[in-house]
Design a protein that fits this description.
Layout lengths: L3 H7 L4 E7 L5 E6 L2 E3 L5 E7 H14 L1 E7 L6 E13 L2 H20 L4 H5 L6 E13 L11
Antiparallel strand pairs: 1-2, 1-5, 3-4, 4-7, 5-6, 6-7
C-alpha cells in the first residue's frame, strides 16, 4: 500500500519515469504524463503516449513488470513504485483531465528549476494510453538517510 505521505507527493506535478525490461533483461525507460493513485492506495494509473513508449508497452505486455520513479523537481522528494500490469487501455475523459492537471503542475515545477516554458508546451501528452498497475512495493528515493529503503 502506498503511504499517505507518498500519495500527497504523487498528486503534485512530479516527474514520472517508467522502467521496464524485455525477456533478455534489456532495460527500457520512458516518460509518463502523470500518475493517479487508486482509492485503495494499492494501485496507480500512469499515462503514456504510444509514439514514444512502444517498447515499454511491448515489455509490459510480455512480462507485466514495471518500476515507476517519481520525483518532485523543486525539492527532489522522490519515491519508486514497483508493480505488475493490470491493464492497458485508451485514456478516458477522467484520465485526460488528470493529464492536463498534471501537465500544469509539472510545467510549474519545471519552470521553477529553469526549463523554458516553450519546452514544456512542446510535450506531446496525447493521445494517451492509461496503464493500470497493481503496486507491489514502494521505496523511498529522496536523497539522504533512508534512501532506497522499502516503505
Amino acid at each position: 500500500m502506498i503511504p499517505a505521505s507518498m500519495v500527497e507527493l504523487l498528486q503534485t506535478g512530479v516527474s514520472v519515469v517508467v522502467g521496464t525490461r524485455d525477456a533478455t533483461l534489456m532495460p527500457e525507460c520512458t516518460r509518463a504524463w502523470g500518475i493517479r493513485v487508486g482509492k485503495d492506495r494499492t494501485s496507480v494509473t500512469i499515462f503514456l503516449t504510444e509514439a514514444i513508449s512502444r517498447k515499454t508497452l511491448d515489455n509490459l505486455k510480455e512480462n507485466g513488470l514495471i518500476a515507476i520513479s517519481c520525483t518532485r523537481p523543486t525539492d527532489h522528494v522522490a519515491c519508486q513504485i514497483k508493480g505488475r500490469l493490470r491493464t492497458i487501455r485508451e485514456a478516458d475523459e477522467r484520465d485526460r483531465d488528470r493529464i492536463k492537471s498534471w501537465h500544469r503542475e509539472f510545467t510549474g515545477e519545471a519552470i521553477a528549476i529553469g526549463v523554458p516554458t516553450h519546452v514544456c508546451e512542446a510535450w506531446i501528452t496525447e493521445p494517451a494510453l492509461a496503464v493500470d498497475v497493481e503496486v507491489t512495493d514502494v521505496f523511498l528515493q529522496t536523497p539522504g538517510p533512508g534512501t532506497g529503503e522499502k516503505i
